[in-house]
Here is the input.
Amino acid sequence: MNLAADDPQSAKEISAFLDGLQERGWTPGGNLQIEYRWGAGDHELDRKYAPELVAFAPDVLLVAGGTTVGLLQNLTRTVPIVFVEVTDPVNRGLVASLAQPGGNTTGFTQFEFSIAGKWLELLKQIAPNVRRAAIIRDPSETSAIGQFAVLQATAPRLGVEVRPVDARDITEIERAMASFARDPDGGMVMTPTGAARGHREAIIALAARLKLPAVYAYRYYVTDGGLISYGPDVTEQCRRAAEYVDRILKGEKPANMPVQAPTKYQMVINLRTAKALGLSVPQSLQASVDEVIE
Here is the structure.
């Protein structure tokens, strides 16, 4: 898993996965044993834990995040792997195609690159005065290039200058954003990365301190105090992953199990945060969201 063990979101994702397993007759501690490893957005931990998990000779691996999938594939091409929260698995070389993954890996994608344009549109809708947007990304993530290309294509019609901020950890993010915020009319798009997920409280606090309107990819950023989010329901992905794990445990092969896209996207606004930033959220935007936090 790409969060910390004590992260409240971790409990939700694992609970959804276990519920899905139990609905299909699997009982942890009964007819199923589960070993957990928590990467917490730290690639060094991922590199440490990947061989440990393979050494257990498991019947199946559940993996969150594309970087960790790649690490595990380098260690085994026989143990079945089910992934969640992965962007662009074909171009990353994780599967041969979405319809016929081939090999030992299948799972659930989280974004098409086009969603990045929606993030910038939402930033402009909720903060019309924004003229500059810092795009925080992890340059080691292959999806960062595709997402930024969409943002660049979207920016001119919105009258926004987009600036990439390549940051692998919270120290780099804090330094870059403090510099960015010295000029007025700025906003932020936090693209999904492992480091961002693990340090989201610090990032949300940073955006508040610098008075930067910010758009995030996941609901739990907004429930933790972020301004607005748009993206897939990752908890539901973990529930759906239980079906694939069940089918593999019953003998199916990942090679023939199609990679599936999200079935649900969520838009969430935190009105308390908007008020603290001096923003008036248009009624038209409030009417289109799935959840409003007051």
